[in-house]
Amino acid sequence: xxxxxxxxxxxxxxxxxxxxxxxxxxxxxxxxxxxxxxxxxxxxxxxxxxxxxxxxxxxxxxxxxxxxxxxxxxxxxxxxxxxxxxxxxxxxxxxxxxxxxxxxxxxxxxxxxxxxxxxxxxxxxxxxxxxxxxxxxxxxxxxxxxxxxxxxxxxxxxxxxxxxxxxxxxxxxxxxxxxxxxxxxxxxxxxxxxxxxxxxxxxxxxxxxxxxxxxxxxxxxxxxxxxxxxxxxxxxxxxxxxxxxxxxxxxxxxxxxxxxxxxxxxxxxxxxxxxxxxxxxxxxxxxxxxxxxxxxxxxxxxxxxxxxxxxxxxxxxxxxxxxxxxxxxxxxxxxxxxxxxxxxxxxxxxxxxxxxxxxxxxxxxxxxxxxxxxxxxxxxxxxxxxxxxxxxxxxxxxxxxxxxxxxxxxxxxxxxxxxxxxxxxxxxxxxxxxxxxxxxxxxxxxxxxxxxxxxxxxxxxxxxxx
Length: 466
Known about the structure:
Radius of gyration: 24 Å
Low-confidence stretches: 448-453, 462-466
Structural class: alpha+beta
Strand order of the largest sheet: 8-14-13-11-9-10
Mean pLDDT: 87
CATH class of the largest domain: Alpha Beta
Number of helices: 13
Oligomer: single chain
Order of helices and strands: EHEHEEEHEEHHHEHHEEHHEHEEEHH
Distance between the termini: 97 Å
Shape: globular
Number of domains: 2
Strand content: 15-25%
Helix content: 25-40%
Number of strands: 14
């Protein structure tokens, strides 16, 4: 073993799939994650840089590279020490609108730069000063080393390190669990039990759920491009959804997935739908797995019956029970799951998938001592045409990432409004059937009723005055 190498071990379940997709289409920039934070405060730049460097010593995944050439199976290598690339730019004196254009250009250039998987670290940081006490923090990382669940733990660590260095103190004692422990756990799982489970789950799947009738235009001749939109439910609706979930022992993730499954059934005309869903992949029998930093999340199919005559609550309970069953076998790779289906290897099991971000980064951002984090945005691209992301908070936010060659903006806006309407309908009438749930939001319905009332009033005024 070379002197700069600390450890070598196989890839996790999802890492195999990510590496395969990225090597197969390197020009697409898949799973290239860009988190942009806007913050204000008197930043100690030296302490800030030192904190990010120290962060890499705490977590093995930040010192990991990947090797696959001339190997039967790819391996990941943990290095003893790496240098985290930290770039500083000064954009003071530029108007806010031009700064926004510069930021878009910066992110585009960064995406084109990509990552070399054989070179650690697979993260980089840019600090961009936009005013005397205001900055953009651009944190770029690849999904092959980190999942969304890990981010709050890394943020918490870098915050503690920064505050210590800013005050001239030594680095605080921060414990972390090596990602290799999870890889070791994976090697002891029974693949035959998982294969049996997935064959049963997918026995009725003959094709991916068609969503072609969602496309309002033929956009296949356009250049490859992904876009994002977000909608937020009101605080009142979000609070009611939370109360609804608690009352009936459901999760918010189940509600969002249920809404998407119903919508998918309505759009496709099928009473059996398949969509992808992310599972945390953090086993309860692995010590400290909940706080482990690494790529453990797995994307797996949910094959669901959607009988429109069923009542909402029993159906949601069945969905949640099914998700619990899948959780027991969420260590099985999507490649192996695909083999358990009757679909050809080149036919995807699903074309849309749902993510619910259970980990709340907000509380860690608020704890960034001397700095005030005011805004966060995330830019990324998957290899799926449509991704639905739920973000918890005082206002539940639904984000949709979509392939612009497959969907236009109007179609995506309609999808977001339909999802919003279904979630509102669940709260308004839990005893309803799936068929009775409306795709019209209450706000839109009230607006239409007001317009109708005004038109009727005008008609009556015309009658009585003539």
